[in-house]
């Protein structure tokens, strides 16, 4: 039967949120057939010193879905290029590449999900685990006239962090932002959350 | 910690990335290295050096490694199954090189005579090591 001319996968782009990078493209449709794809990449070093070298992506050497998690491939804050080709049996399409190179410093940083807990008079905060690159810049204060803002850096999510020992009956407020040092950026602050310590009598 | 070379700052996170990649390939590479007497980089290389000299030497070393080591061993790294940490090192070296390049362009450091001599010493040692390993390669009918 007449060989199908496989088009190169179009619309290649990277969507990145909170340092998770997903490469997507539009599928190549061949009626009645399953088309696979292969993904390769180049960092700025390869482009500058060894331009012929392309590296197979960690997880997407032969996949059937038109998307690939390239988070593990991007391990430096430099501009990366990706290429994808379609594969059908012994046939491969031409490579298609990104229109614009991708640098992880363009990732979208969302403000962190945060839980504040009181354990007796102790004010404790917990953040979701967002991965190895994330720290949390916490600002907290006692809600009273001319109270002072205090700051703390929480080095990783997924664990409880003691902020302050509260005064009986006082209300304390907390807000936080993520900090990703490797790209020298941080997110917006999240919603302020406040909590009131028990009154002294309550504990007797 | 971080590295501050004059006004150039290399974040802790980049150093951590470099360290992880180095650890991931160190044992594989060292297992193949039978020439253990030659030391390319000596302690005194940076001793009593000004920060401008350190900046300059680091710049020369990084550029040297990227131009001479990494592009000659790319295929070997793939064969040894250490390509991923290998290219992580290369691209993060490239990040640091660009930061130092930025300082160089702003005239923050220039190749002083002393650092020029030190770097030539390093290159001589490297050439010696290369010749020795090519010699061994020849003897083995490489």
UniProtKB/TrEMBL annotation, chain B:
Q: Which UniProt keywords apply?
A: Cytokine, Secreted, Signal
Keyword Signal annotated = yes
Can you say where in the cell this protein is located? Answer: Secreted
Carries keyword Repeat? no
Primary place of residence? Answer: secreted
> Molecular function terms in GO for this entry?
cytokine activity
- State the superkingdom: Eukaryota
Any single GO CC term annotated in Swiss-Prot or TrEMBL for this entry: extracellular space
Give the family, as the similarity comment puts it.
Answer: Belongs to the IL-10 family.
In Swiss-Prot or TrEMBL terms, this protein is called Interleukin-24
The record lists the organism as Sarcophilus harrisii
Phylogenetic lineage: Eukaryota, Metazoa, Chordata, Craniata, Vertebrata
- Span of the entire protein shown here: 66 to 207 of 207
